[in-house]
Amino acid sequence: MWHALLVALALLLVVEGIWPFLSPGRFRQALLEVAGADDQTLRIAGLISMLAGVGLLYLFN
Known about the structure:
By secondary structure, the protein is mainly alpha-helical. The chain has a domain at 24-61. 90% of the residues lie in helices and 0% in strands. It has 3 helices and no strands. Helix 1 (2-22) packs across helix 2 (24-35). The chain is flat. It starts with a helix and ends with a helix.
């Protein structure tokens, strides 16, 4: 179980690093836009992200 969790964390870090590595300027601009978003928008985006993750886990398992 711990091995799978650590592998998932490692893959998350790899995927999260792709955008700032390939386009740091656009990544910085996106972060500024997210920083200016209101709490409700961020909560909805987080919920959508979590539901997409649960859906993908369901499909792949």
